[in-house]
Design brief:
Blueprint: E1 3-14, E2 17-28, E3 32-36, H1 43-50, E4 58-63, E5 66-68, H2 73-78, E6 81-84, H3 96-101, H4 113-126, H5 143-156, E7 161-165, H6 173-188, E8 192-196, H7 200-206, E9 209-214, E10 217-223, H8 229-237, E11 256-265, E12 269-277, E13 281-285, H9 292-299, E14 307-312, E15 315-316, H10 322-327, E16 330-333, H11 337-340, H12 348-353, H13 368-382, H14 398-408, E17 417-421, H15 429-444, E18 448-453, H16 456-462, E19 465-470, E20 473-479, H17 485-493
Parallel strand pairs: 3-8, 3-9, 6-7, 7-8, 13-18, 13-19, 16-17, 17-18
Antiparallel strand pairs: 1-2, 1-4, 4-5, 9-10, 11-12, 11-14, 14-15, 19-20
Length: 501
């Protein structure tokens, strides 16, 4: 296939730190290329150079066979390159039409709005959503629909190489399928796609080829048919796949820490029951909207309308009361770290000790010496560099941010219960392996872990017990060798006879 984009010997360093080294890459017309790699592997720097956001120190770029310099995003747009970033760049209060043309270098000062409407309509038609109202507000759309608006924006600009960075991180399964179908249609039209994702299942389902970045270098490019999932992970990690998920340790003291009986959240969860033993990981598996995430939120005291009976080590756990749950060492880690977990502008030290200030304030005066000592210990225990205690949390990788939240649960006299929604969302493969090891260490300390996850590979790899949910109801329970991806997938998508299960 004809080459639409190629780079040769690309290099970039920041104050002595090498971000890219001698990277060569080529993309054919009508090709969907997956890009994988850990955070810090060089993917973001590579994309920024292609979009003119960052200038390389060395190397060359050719577009459609012609050597080009890309001094800025406006010039990249003019050369047929476009990006849908992980954080969408839409204005919710504006219409679909206005958002499609927002930021377009191709709109002259004096223009005919009808002409823009016709081109926008053509873009929507090409994506199979021609019945959408161009005057409708983007704020009324789902996340999946907003992604399609972003893609329509690129089509309206006649973009030939579309770069998508983690486009499905916050989408439901049905929305993901819609996005993948749209990208296949773009491939059929002869457009090329660079698809960056931590979700390896999507790489194998969608992409023709996959390129792996590691430590700033392009270590391999292969047709997806010629690489296994395990082989791809080994290329990303630089070590064997079997180090991804730590071994389950037999725990002779597997007491029933948290017992959930007939938990109901009006309109979301109906009559849910499960047992989370100490030293084990219970996963509540289900699609977005299945009610799985509501189970953990209710158990953490976050849903005042939840009813049912919860006991912790035989004693009643009060529903609808976060302070009561925290006092009983029941902790919650949200899937939205920035909004419901971290204090992003604050330091690593502050984030680690934020929930224990009262215990280190004799006579109401904080002992910063004690807090620094505790934060240093917690950072070391969860694998965060102690030299970064003064760094703002927002400047850490997703994996290190998640470790801060784990760290908050450790400075307790007794092991507790850790409730987690999507504990590795937006985290690269290498950091995921570290998070999984940390979860197992908590199990060894006697914690009971309850998690939800939409990543079935993760569910099968890390869970000791799996309870599947569909439309607010329990479908089945699996333990040990009975945990299989095929049965879990069937349960959470189209369960046959729930009553019979």
């Amino acid at each position: 296939m004809p080459e639409v984009l190629s780079v040769e010997g690309l290099g970039k360093s920041y104050t002595g730190v090498r971000a890219l080294h001698d990277v060569s890459f080529s993309l054919g017309s009508g090709e969907i290329r997956g890009i994988c790699g850990e955070n810090g592997a060089g993917k973001s720097t590579f994309v920024k150079i292609l979009m003119g956001i960052t200038q390389p120190d060395s190397g060359s770029i050719r577009i459609a066979g012609r050597a080009r310099d890309i001094p800025g995003p406006r010039q990249a747009q003019g050369m047929g390159l476009g990006i849908v970033a992980q954080e969408l760049s839409l204005a919710p209060h504006l219409s679909i039409l206005d958002n499609i043309w927002l930021g377009s270098a191709g709109v002259p000062l004096l223009h005919r709005r009808q002409a823009l409407r016709e081109r926008a309509q053509k873009a929507l038609d090409a994506l199979g959503v021609g019945d959408w109202d161009l005057n409708g507000r983007v704020g009324a759309l789902t996340m999946g629909q907003r992604q399609i608006v972003e893609i329509a924006r690129l089509l309206a600009r006649d973009t030939q190489v579309l770069i998508l960075d983690e486009p499905t991180a916050t989408l439901s399964d049905s929305e993901i399928e819609r996005i993948l179908a749209v990208l296949r249609e773009l491939k059929a039209q002869g457009r090329s796609v660079i698809y960056i994702s931590h979700r390896l299942g999507e790489i194998f389902e969608l992409c023709d080829t996959v390129t792996v970045f590691r430590n700033g270098e392009c270590v391999a490019t292969k047709p997806v048919q010629e690489v296994s999932r395990e082989g791809l992970i080994e290329l990303m990690l630089g070590r064997p796949f079997d180090e991804m998920y730590p071994q389950h340790h037999a725990n002779p003291d597997a007491r029933n820490a948290l017992v959930i009986e007939r938990l109901t959240v009006p309109g979301m969860v109906h009559d849910f029951s499960a047992v989370a033993p100490r030293g084990k990981i219970l996963c509540v598996a289900g699609q977005i909207g299945s009610g799985a995430a509501m189970v953990t939120r209710a158990a953490a005291g976050l849903l005042p309308d939840a009813i049912g009976r919860l006991t912790l080590d035989g004693k009643t756990l009060r529903l609808g009361s976060v302070p009561h749950c925290v006092a009983r060492n029941v902790f919650f880690l949200s899937e939205d770290r920035a909004s419901e977990g971290l204090f992003p502008p604050m330091k690593v030290l502050d984030n680690l000790v934020a929930t224990r200030l009262y215990a280190h304030a004799p006579l109401g005066v904080l002992s910063w010496r004690a807090l620094r000592r505790i934060a240093t210990d917690l950072a070391e225990r969860v694998g965060v560099d102690r030299n970064r205690l003064g760094t703002a949390a927002v400047n850490l990788s997703g994996g290190n941010q998640q470790k801060l939240l784990f760290g908050r649960t450790l400075e307790r006299t007794e092991p507790g219960v850790l409730l987690m929604n999507e504990p590795t969302r937006g985290i690269d493969v290498g950091a995921r392996a570290e998070i999984y090891r940390l979860m197992r260490r908590l199990c060894d300390l006697g914690y009971a872990l309850v998690m939800t996850s939409s990543d079935l590979e993760e569910v099968v790899g890390i869970a000791d017990i799996v309870v599947t949910m569909y439309r607010g109801r329990t479908v089945a329970r699996y333990e040990g060798e009975r945990i299989a991806m095929s049965t879990i997938l069937a349960d959470i998508t189209h369960p046959a006879e729930q009553a019979a299960r």
